[in-house]
User: Which sequence fits this backbone?
């Protein structure tokens, strides 16, 4: 079935929001099949919220200290997203581990971006891990989120060469260029109904 309205996207972000900005920039094209309807952060002064406001998108801060545990926080998050009829969630530098409450509510409808070629180097400081292991190729992965840490089915990847003399920062900067390209493209594919999951394998219809 062909969609008549853009896919309603929500974004979770804890930091500066450069991937969020790439998504917002993509949505400026009237032909792009998705629109960001809300950006949520666990940090009141996250620059990502400022980017959302500048782009005319609702910016919502949820204070983790206002909730007794992770599950109650995530339950409130789910209520806010459902109230806004969010269809796809994008995790763009969101630093909280999401509980089963959230993961079940958005199973198959949440995607995360990670700066490595998963399953290599999950978790924090992926670029540092890559350099420490001496790999010659690093990169970026967009995957469906599940209850593990960077363990969900892989949708798309892009490779980035590790150069002699690379530091964590220089490698991260080159990977970020690919992140900004890949994340909006994956959202487009999902919005166009071209992504399906068969077990652990993600199929993309061309």
Assistant:
């Amino acid at each position: 079935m062909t969609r008549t309205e853009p896919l309603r996207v929500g974004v979770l972000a804890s930091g500066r929001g450069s991937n969020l900005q790439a998504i917002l920039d993509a949505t400026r094209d009237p032909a792009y099949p998705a629109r960001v309807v809300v950006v949520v952060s666990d940090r009141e002064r996250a620059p990502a919220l400022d980017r959302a406001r500048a782009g005319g998108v609702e910016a919502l801060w949820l204070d983790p200290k206002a909730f007794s545990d992770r599950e109650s926080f995530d339950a409130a998050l789910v209520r806010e997203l459902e109230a806004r009829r969010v269809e796809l969630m994008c995790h763009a530098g969101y630093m909280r581990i999401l509980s089963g409450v959230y993961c079940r509510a958005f199973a198959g409808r949440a995607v995360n971006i990670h700066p490595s070629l998963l399953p290599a180097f999950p978790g924090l400081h992926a670029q540092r891990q890559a350099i420490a292991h001496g790999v010659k190729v690093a990169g970026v992965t967009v995957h469906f989120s599940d209850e593990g840490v960077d363990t969900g089915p892989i949708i798309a990847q892009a490779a980035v060469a590790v150069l002699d003399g690379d530091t964590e920062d220089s490698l991260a900067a080159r990977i970020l260029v690919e992140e900004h390209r890949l994340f909006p493209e994956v959202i487009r594919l999902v919005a166009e109904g071209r992504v399906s999951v068969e077990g652990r394998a993600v199929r993309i219809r061309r």
